[in-house]
Write a structure and sequence with these properties.
Layout (H helix, E strand, L loop, with lengths): L13 E9 L8 E5 L7 E6 L4 H5 L7 E5 L2 E2 L5 H10 L3 E9 L3 H4 L2 H14 L3 H6 L5 H4 L4 H33 L9 H71 L5 H4 L3 H62 L31 H28 L1
Antiparallel strand pairs: 1-6, 2-3, 3-4, 4-5, 4-6
Helix pairs in contact: 4-8, 7-8, 8-10
């Protein structure tokens, strides 16, 4: 019995201090209080709310012990009585406290690590699978960054396919100019084609540079944003793990209270619970900071994407305009039309073995007939030869 009454500070030092807080118009200082009589020998700060006098001051933190209000001791009082003492003070309130010098590494136990792994595992599940296993994904999926995180791989694949299609389109646009091969010697049209080819080469090099600039968005900007989102997700899982740990410890306290049995850690100052509260607050601050950073980076990434697309399209239109102007200028001063075409094949001597068809692949039936015909010709030639030898 005497051992249960001994304080257990977990080796955590405390430093006394005093802070003066100016109340807001709602007569609040922005903290929630836990512990107190009759179960816990001390009262402590459970949470510091955002945008409140306590959060703006930054002195009080979760887990700090409250020892007095405006010169009056709070030892042996309940948390409701202490809250009424604070509300009774108008204007400025002086808080006396013992600062908990907690090390966040001390609170990051194996239980927290396993909860973090569990949250990461649940995030990869579908809603149906999570519901069937009795796991909730609402807190993981309702964030503003969950959709951009899921959209990044899809956008990466789409942008990669767009770049490939654009490169193929540029190639199909420019290569027909490269493939012109004039057959007529000393033709003016050949000179014009050569001039257009030189212009097309410059345009082709410009397109390659433009595609390289667009690929920078995929190879540098997107991976950097994904790395930031991974850090944000790690901070989110750690914060959720501490929240779950606090919920479990609260449920444990409620269970012992309902059974009217004392809980050892509560009777000795609840230092373990206060340590987890401090770790949760620091994890929450880190999570909020990472969340702000990742939202800003995603917004900048979207803006950069839109600006780059507009800028590259303007460059593309300008390059195409210059290319067509150069081609029109070359054709304008060239008297090559009408072009004579030797349809009857009487003006020049052509190689009869060379023939071109529009289709890239010949039908299989035609190939089969050619093979059968060649075999029949060979067989008939052999039979005729044997017959001539017999007659001879």
């Amino acid at each position: 019995v005497f051992l249960e009454l001994l304080p257990c500070k977990w080796g955590i030092p405390i430093v006394p201090g005093t802070v003066v807080l100016q109340k807001d118009p709602q007569n609040m200082i922005g903290i929630s209080i836990g512990g107190g009589a009759p179960l816990c020998p001390c009262l402590y700060v459970v949470q510091v709310f955002d945008n409140t006098p306590a959060s703006h001051d930054g002195t009080l933190a979760a887990g700090d012990e409250l020892v007095g209000v405006n010169g009056k001791s709070v030892k042996g009082k309940t948390k409701v009585e202490v809250a009424k003492m604070i509300q009774a003070v108008k204007g400025e309130v002086t808080m006396y406290y013992n600062k908990l010098q907690a090390d966040p590494k001390q609170g990051k136990t194996l239980d927290i690590v396993m909860k973090k792994v569990k949250h990461r595992f649940v995030e990869g599940m579908s809603s149906g699978t999570a519901d069937s296993l009795g796991l909730s994904r609402a807190i993981l999926c309702n964030g503003n960054t969950s959709k951009p995180l899921a959209d990044i791989p899809v956008n990466t694949m789409n942008n990669s396919s767009i770049l490939v299609c654009a490169f193929r389109g540029f190639r199909s646009l420019v290569l027909p100019v490269f493939s012109i091969e004039a057959k007529i010697v000393e033709s003016k049209f050949l000179l014009i084609c050569l001039e257009e080819i030189s212009v097309g080469l410059k345009v082709h090099c410009f397109y390659l540079q433009m595609l390289s600039d667009l690929s920078t968005y995929l190879n540098k900007a997107v991976p950097d944003t994904k790395l930031t989102i991974k850090k944000y997700a790690d901070g989110k899982f750690e914060y959720l793990s501490y929240c779950l740990k606090v919920k479990e410890m609260d449920d444990e306290e409620y269970t012992y209270t309902a059974l009217q049995e004392p809980l050892y850690r509560v009777c000795t100052g609840n230092y373990e619970y206060r340590l987890i509260l401090r770790c949760r607050q620091e994890a929450r601050d880190r999570f909020a900071r990472l969340r702000k950073d990742v939202l800003e980076k995603i917004e900048l990434l979207d803006q950069k994407h839109v600006q780059d697309i507009v800028f590259q399209l303007q460059r593309f239109v300008s390059a195409m305009s210059h290319y067509h102007d150069d081609c029109c200028r070359a054709l304008k001063h060239a008297d090559v039309f009408p072009i004579e075409v030797d349809l009857t094949r009487t003006m020049q001597c052509y190689n009869p073995q060379t023939s071109y068809t529009d289709d890239e692949l010949e039908p299989m039936a035609t190939l089969a007939e050619d093979k059968v015909g060649s075999r029949q010709d060979a067989a008939s030639t052999k039979e005729n030869g044997e017959k001539l030898l017999e007659d001879f």
